[in-house]
Amino acid sequence: MPEVQLSVIIPVYNEEAGLAALFARIYPALDALGLRYELIFVNDGSRDRSAALLAAQFEQRPDVTRVILFNGNFGQHRAILAGFAHCRGERVVTLDADLQNPPEDIHLLLAAMDQGHDYVGSIRRQRQDAAWRHWASRAMNHLRHKLTGIVMTDQGCMLRAYGRNVVQLINQCNELNTFIPALAYQFAQHPTEVVVGHEERSAGESKYSLYSLARLNFDLITGFSLVPLQLFSMLGMAVSLLSGLLFVLLAGRRLILGPEEGGTFTLFALLFLLIGLALLGIGLLGEYVGRIYQEVRQRPRYVISAILEHQP
């Protein structure tokens, strides 16, 4: 069997309405590359007819199509990790199933890899998302860069290319919650970014709610940096120092000027501020402890019910 030069991994979750359009565009785009490729669809526990449509597509193109079927919903990043574990290509490209990133732009990523880069991120040109997604993405990009030092202009774009060396290193990692683009950036020797197109979703609706995006960014920050804990440690020391100075000031004032009336509401305001900071710090600590708890249980990251593939 000839060596597979390119693997394209596409997670699928309730994409029944858009799969026909995806099939109509992805195969011609990959055929035009003139490479020996495989297309790996990972069905992430879809509740609609996505699994049936993927199986039917496998019957039409069994030579280049593989389908991994999960027995439940484990999340987009774990679906990509399953694709990494089963792919055969020397180069691996990830792509969302919603066609917001045109598959015709895959050649741009491969061209960058031809120049010696082992990891190629992407920057969406003229994003078609809602305004709040623009603002949230810009804010999280800035915060992520400050906390982790990881350089990703557009962390939300999943059209990315990985060299086999990077994929193998990612496959050696066993953590349950991670952010694959950031992990790849740490392992890559020569990362870069290219500008790709961005279109409106062809059908269906986004599977990422505001809560899901917040959870994803918690995974990114807590999985790659201890800076939040260190900041709260320094904040605790600063508050303790200021509290001690305030105690000395009030004690001196009482000895010199005598007791005074009032100041109750100021005391309550200060107390509520300190309680709020304490609760925020406890919540942040809980995020790290919760992830430790998930890791020590050593439960599988995903469960595969079936793999549809052609056996040569």
Q: Care to describe what's here?
A:
By secondary structure, the chain is α/β, with parallel strands linked by helices. It has 2 domains: 6-205 and 301-308, Spore Coat Polysaccharide Biosynthesis Protein SpsA, Chain A, CATH 3.90.550.10; 227-297. Helices cover 51% and strands 14% of the residues. It has 10 helices and 8 strands. It has helices at 19-31, 50-60, 76-86, 106-114, 131-148, 164-171, 180-187, 210-224, 227-257, 264-297, and strands at residues 6-12, 37-43, 65-70, 91-94, 119-124, 160-163, 191-196, 304-308. The protein has an 8-stranded mixed sheet with strand order 7-5-6-4-1-2-3-8, sandwiched between helices. Strand 2, helix 2 and strand 3 (65-70) form a beta-alpha-beta unit. Helix 5 (131-148) runs parallel beside helix 8 and helix 6 packs across helix 7. It is elongated, with a radius of gyration of 25 Å.
Unreliable stretches covering 5 or more consecutive residues? none
CATH topology of the largest domain: Spore Coat Polysaccharide Biosynthesis Protein SpsA, Chain A
Largest sheet: 8 strands, mixed
Number of helices: 10
Quick one: CATH superfamily of the largest domain?
Spore Coat Polysaccharide Biosynthesis Protein SpsA, Chain A
Helicity range: 40-55%
Radius of gyration (Å): 25 Å
Query: Would you count the extended β strands for me?
Result: 8
H/E element sequence: EHEHEHEHEHEHHEHHHE
Measured distance between first and last alpha carbons: 7 Å
Strand arrangement, major sheet: 7-5-6-4-1-2-3-8
The mean pLDDT is 82
- Estimate the strand proportion: 5-15%
